[in-house]
Structures are given as structure tokens and as C-alpha cells.
Write a structure and sequence with these properties.
This protein has five helices and four strands; from the N terminus they run E-H-E-E-H-E-H-H-H. The protein has helices spanning about 20-30, 50-60, 85, 95-115, 130-145, and strands at about 5-10, 35-40, 40-50, 65-70.
């Protein structure tokens, strides 16, 4: 791995209409020098920082509120992460990614609705409760508690 290479994960929310295979095809169409690996959750993109960021920027245009990006410390095939070298089992960080993926549809929904205009009605201004009325309410409640 060249020292100026970076690796990022492109993760799709379950609610996204885009499939990982469609995302990968679009990444291949971009013809950047970034290396793209399709995964069950989206893609892993490795290359120079400018190539990776350019690829991801184009991919996010497909579904801005359903495609998320996360830095990955190791490129695909790195022996520190490779299950073949480690003897099998889930990769370190897989369970964290699985948990994070579970909340992505909610985040997507929030991102989609945040741009909707808020109700422009002014909230009703309530008058402050006068102390005399507050004392009456307490006394009425006390009587109900004793009698009830």
C-alpha cells in the first residue's frame, strides 16, 4: 500500500433503493484509479485521497440521504483484517458496522425530512399561571385526594 492511499467504506442504508451491485457498477463507470470492492453493505474504495473522494462524491449523488461514508483503517486484503490469515470468524469491527447499519434507515428518514419546510404557524403564547390560581388548583386536588 502506498502511503498516500486511503480506504473508505460506502455503506447503504437498508431503506436505500440502490443495491450494492448498482453502486459498484456506477463506481466502475467513473473510471477513476480508485480500487472498488463490492461488499454486502456497500463498497470499499481504496486509492489516492482525491480519487477516493471524487468517486464517493459521485456515488452519493445517487441517494444523498441513503449512502453513508466511513473511514476504514486498512485496505482490502490487508493481513491485519483478512479472515484467511486470522483463521476465520467475523472481521474486527464487523459487529460495530452491523449495529451502525441498523440505525441508518432512521438517519436517512431524518435527512429526508429535515429539508421539508417547518410549519410556519406561531405557537400559541400561554399566559403565565397566576399564583392565586395555582393555589386553588392545589387545594382542589388536595380535597379530591382526601375525598377520593
Amino acid at each position: 500500500m502506498v502511503s498516500d492511499e486511503i480506504t473508505k467504506m460506502v455503506v447503504l442504508a437498508d431503506s436505500s433503493p440502490i443495491l450494492p451491485s448498482e453502486l459498484a457498477l456506477r463506481a466502475y463507470e467513473l473510471s477513476t484509479d480508485a480500487v472498488v470492492k463490492e461488499t454486502c453493505f456497500g463498497l470499499i474504495v481504496t486509492g489516492s485521497e482525491s480519487e477516493v473522494n471524487e468517486t464517493i462524491e459521485e456515488l452519493r449523488r445517487l441517494d444523498p440521504s441513503g449512502i453513508f461514508v466511513k473511514d476504514r483503517g486498512f485496505p482490502p486484503g490487508d493481513s491485519r483484517r483478512c479472515r484467511a490469515v486470522r483463521g476465520g470468524g467475523p472481521r474486527p469491527g464487523f459487529h460495530q458496522l452491523e449495529k451502525e447499519s441498523a440505525i441508518l434507515p432512521s438517519i436517512s428518514h431524518g435527512l429526508e425530512t429535515i429539508d421539508e419546510p417547518l410549519d410556519a404557524k406561531e405557537p400559541k403564547k400561554r399566559e403565565k399561571l397566576k399564583i392565586d390560581r395555582f393555589i386553588e388548583i392545589i387545594e382542589e386536588q388536595s380535597k379530591e385526594d382526601v375525598n377520593g
